[in-house]
Amino acid sequence: MGDTRTQTTPLKATVIGLGSMGLGMAQSIVRGGIPISGFDLNPKSLSALAQSGGTAAISAHDAAIDSDILATVVVNAAQTRAVLFGKESVAQAMKPGGVIISCATMAPSDAKQLARDAEALGLLYLDAPMSGGAAKASAGQLTFMASGSAQAFERAKPVLDLVAGKVYNLGDAAGDGASFKMVNQLLAGVHIAAACEAVAFAARLGLNLNKVYEVITASAGNSWMFENRVPHILEGDYSPRSAISIFTKDLGIVSDMARQEKFPLQISSTALQMFLMTAAAGMDGDDDASVARMIAQITGIELPPAKAS
Fold first, then answer.
1. CATH class in words for 5-173
2. What is the pLDDT of residues 188-228, one digit of tens each?
3. In the annotation, is 181 catalytic?
4. Which residues pair with 72 in a beta bridge?
5. Where do the domains of the chain lie?
6. What strands lie across the sheet with 164-169, from one edge to the other?
7. What is the pTM for the complete model shown?
């Protein structure tokens, strides 16, 4: 049965975390006609939301007041917990019976505990990590790997319809969505590391890297990550669309999960070490294609020069 409140009172949505993904989501919600407020520590993000027609709040708590649907689009479980249950009491500012759409990548155990804490306050919780990048966020075409109760899915549907191209219902309990996302991140991290290794190897062989990109993207060795990340290397542009720190975190979670399951993950473990080496070389906050720069440093090869940051 639908939520009868939505029949008489307009929905209010909130997005906490207006980075490239969260801002795109918020702008998609604005275009869909649902009133939205948002908060981010970056004043430029708040200004961009206001210019798009949303309400830029002065705090996360103010953004969440009387919110029916609140999306947390932050980096990890710790930030999600701080937003929802920290000193600003964002969860308690929401409308009773509201739904939290939790978008951060995290361990399934963290998602389960956050759901329990939300439900203790009379709120619904949708474990909904996402994929697609900034362009799909702006277009309202993200993919969500979601799990939660049928009521949580129903309550979140008006916002999900505006921000998602595909919503996978992966189970009725928080943690299932997080598990699917970690499988995705395992593959994403391995593919980025492999793409960087391949380009560096091509440089050692003296090949024209632009031609390598052209040939591989038309061949069986291509991957989405090769096609997306190698241009960063060719352009020498390591501004962080997705930072090295994301994959030291995510592949670290994968490693922890595998250890708990006593399951060997040799390839992703090697990829994790490549990201850790890159972070140790001072590139933790740079684009994840910087793995190629790390390989270049230790092998003495030359890649296209990096642009000044």
1. alpha beta
2. 999 999 999 999 999 999 999 999 999 999 999 999 999 99
3. yes
4. 16, 102
5. 5-173, 179-299
6. 130-131, 142-146, 164-169
7. 0.92
